[in-house]
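Subject: Protein record for review, amino acid sequence with backbone structure tokens
Why sent: The fold of this protein is of interest and is recorded here as tokens.
Notation: Tokens come from a learned vocabulary of local backbone shapes, not from coordinates.
Attached in line: The record itself begins immediately under this heading.
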Amino acid sequence: MSKNMEIPARKDVADGHKWKLDNLYQDDSAWEKGLLEYEGMTGKIAGFKGSLASSSDALYKTLVFFRDYSILEERLGYYAHLRQTEDEGDSGSRGRMARYMMAATKGSGAFSWLNPEIQHVPEEKIHEWVKEERFLEFRVFLSRLLRYKPHVLTETEERLLALSMDAASTPQETFSVLTNVDFDFGKVETPEGPRPLSQSTFSSLMQHRNRKVRKAAYLQFYGVYDAHKHGLAQLYAGQCKHDDYLSKVRNFSSSRARELFPDNVAEEVYDNLVSVINQNLPLLHSYYELRKRALGLDELRHYDVYVPLAGQVKVEHSWEEAVGLVTDALSVLGKEYVTVLKQGLLSGWADRYENKGKRSGAFSAGSYSGDPYILMNYKSDVIRDVFTMAHEGGHSMHSWYAAKHNPFMHYNYSIFEAEVASTFNEALLFDYMLKNTENAELKTYLLASRVDDLLATLFRQTMFAEYEHKAHAMLEAGEALTLDALRSEYGKLLSKYFGTAMVFEESSNLEGLRIPHFYNSYYVYKYATGISASIALSKKVLAGEPEALDNYFAFLKSGGSRFPIEALKVAGVDMSEPAPVEAACREFGRLVEELAKALKL
């Protein structure tokens, strides 16, 4: 979509630019039939209750039913979710999602006895039964379930928690509707004419060469958040309170301990990340001083940190051109990987461009039954969007391999692992583009872009991780999460991470109220650990180290069969140690030095 065009309504988007959800459901009516089937299966759940300890047959039949029920539930949920993200203001899609959530909540309540009942089967019986070949697809599921034994409640308590699932999503859902649908950011005057300001176009406008445009867009954008700051602070406080509630009722020492438990990630991994990044903040501060000099500014402002440093380079890639560029860059991964990804990006995996009401940003949604779909708001004049395509393509191919090589019950890998496959692709794309151009200005642009991408993923996400842990820790210590308290803590982190080169606006600390990932608690740190792992692994593959590529594909194919730290050891990197993060910081410092030379500063 051209940057001068009005943002179209969903109905006006060309079919070829939309994802094809046929592998989930042909249409809404087919989804309705699936929902009826699901509700019918829900009515059969009680018939399995009380039988699990009687025999291996009883346990096996129950697990098969639970597997089939869960596959159907996933299909229904993904279709409803994807349709809703197409236009968050569409009442039909919101209604469909609401009906799914109600049905899923009822189903979770009906199945609330399952985990406690499995937990109460003598472990020696389960260990003996799972030796039978037919239990092969359930072994990982059962071993992980038994690990949860100290945190599984009684049947009645589990049912009450399951029934609260729908209501618990209110802070996240309200935040999404407010910021993507209700907020009207207006338009910004530019030398090219007025441009609509939205969650998606904000990033593009922050890269505008005209500083007055950036400033106007920044102040106008945050002005809308300022007008709603009290409500947004209450929403985030509500999210933290619910996290605290769940950690207490499930017998965890903290919200962080509960969130890290499923991945079997020690809290020291989180603390090591924050500690190493804090030790290397002088590298980040040096970069901001470099940016200040490169832009010729007396003072660096928050709206100056995204504009490309390579002065006159103008990069344009159509969707098709970007697909070709990305797949060429990934050719080292082999024919199968490249062919599948290219066909998917051109023929129905991706919802390409922005439309009114569409969810901002980008994501990959890989499921067992459907294609690994990709949502983007692609802009042909934003080179980061090409890297975003590679990034989301990494997620999608990880999903494709995981579903192809694992049974449903343990195909789904963790987010901790996902952020490796995505940023790995970005590393290959950067390397390919840098080596395949003789244009000095483009090389400078690529270096600057890579530095900014590493900054955003390694340093910025760690800042976010430090903030959300601080917010949760404040609540757990009995402190109120007021608007002033949240703004104060976020402001301290802004000053620490940006250093003395930066001069902030009064509204800058409102940024902490606009980050969608904060509603998926303790998520963002995985971006930083992920890119640290991917830098190490991509260097091995690009250097042609023996078995590096085979080890990487073994990792992609492992799905959820291993805990993430162990899966990454298979790939060739140990994230239980601080060394990969330290190496990533050194890589950032090296690239900043190269960029300074290219800019002759």
Residues 440-476 form the longest helix (37 residues). DSSP finds 25 helices and seven strands in the chain. The CA atoms of residues 35 and 76 lie 7 Å apart. The chain has two domains: 10-168, 235-303+391-437+454-601.
